[in-house]
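Our preliminary data section would be incomplete without showing what the modeling component actually yields. Below, a chain of 200 amino acids is followed by its predicted structure, encoded as tokens that our downstream tools consume directly.
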Amino acid sequence: MVLNNCTVCTVYEAEETHQRRLRVKCDGEQITLYMKRENELSDSERIRIDFFDGQIGCVRTYCEAIVRRNYDPAVSEPWIADCEVLEVIDIVQGRRYLRTNTEDEVLMTSFKQGELRGDIQNISEGGLYFITKTRLGCDDTIEFDYTFVEKEYRLNAMVLREEDFRDGRYGYGCQFTELPKGSKRDIQQYVFRRQNGRIW
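Predicted structure:
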């Protein structure tokens, strides 16, 4: 995930009771915060920051921030901070779910058709889309194992829609049912890291 449509953020102090709004500029993976006074933000190896992205929504994070003097005469703020996202706590999406593209072949079990192989094309905390040579019904349920952020989960998903490629392959959009405890946050972390090229 790259925050291309983010212009403002909220920075939280240690107790998270005091909040400060700062201007943000995002250029690819580079995130810069702008401050009128040096003491608006101190160097921190782990600080809570919420980024408000027009496309993604509110991205709640832990970040590392390094404050330095601004020598760019075109920028009014005299102080800036180089910011790196260390961890995504949660994403309150402007769109329903943020997806990431994948090309993973996974062994699945259909409750009606038995074992099959599916090529997962994209995945999010809401569900997945995969391609298989096994035809499924739109009320079928699949089960499979998938690893997010170094932890494997057993996931169940219900088939909602079918796409017939007319070459012996079928595409299925599925919705997750009863996500395992802790998996929602790990899926969000996984999507974030893949969007930033940290997982291949």
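Residues 100-195 form a domain with the Thrombin, subunit H fold (CATH 2.40.10.220). The CA atoms of residues 143 and 156 lie 5 Å apart. Preliminary results of this kind motivate Aim 1 of the renewal.
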